[in-house]
Amino acid sequence: MRLRSSSEPILIKKYGNRRLYDTRASSYITLDQLEAIVRRGDDVRVIDAKTSEDLTQATLTQIILESGRAARLLPVTLLQQLIRMDDESLAEFMGRYLSATLEMYLEAKRGAQTVSPFLPMATMPFQAANAIARMWLGAGQALAPEAQYTPPATTTPAAPPPAPPPDTTAVEVAALRRELDELKTLLRGNKRKT
């Protein structure tokens, strides 16, 4: 993935009719084209063409939600509970929970990579998680570049499993939860030893 330098983000103007105008290319673009711009590593800033209100966050969220990928990631009961929360509580929950979860995952992954020369099987849960995430999120990168697993030279990366039928999602989510609980236990044990 190509990452943009520290230059200014591409300015996209959003009009009342939901049309998007790429000011760099001087042309109208679709939401899919905007998604492709972001996927290739360009930063964007979306503003309301009339008021100059910043719409970046809402537009990027729209891309995720309209792609259909997000619907497969979140169970209905969680979505209902999130809708029932007020904006402040929801923002606090999402910010803290997602940040803490990602940090715990990355810490466990770094620990597994550290011991992988001695225990090659230690990184298998992360290979499985990346394969499942790629399957759920489509052909794009499953995790941020800094979170991607790079296997040690002595191991062969596992091939992603074939896509299961849609009705196995609940089973896979349960398996991921069990793996996460095992990783938490492993992390707690490692922290006590240090």
From TrEMBL:
Ranges where the record places region Disordered: 148-169
Domain PHA accumulation regulator DNA-binding N-terminal: 11-67
Domain PHB accumulation regulatory stretches: 74-107
Residue spans of biased composition, Low complexity class: 148-157
A Pfam family this chain is assigned to: PHB_acc_N
Amino acid composition bias (Pro residues), ranges on this chain: 158-167
UniProt protein name: PhbF
Organism the protein comes from: Sandaracinus amylolyticus
Lineage of the organism: Bacteria, Pseudomonadati, Myxococcota, Polyangia, Polyangiales
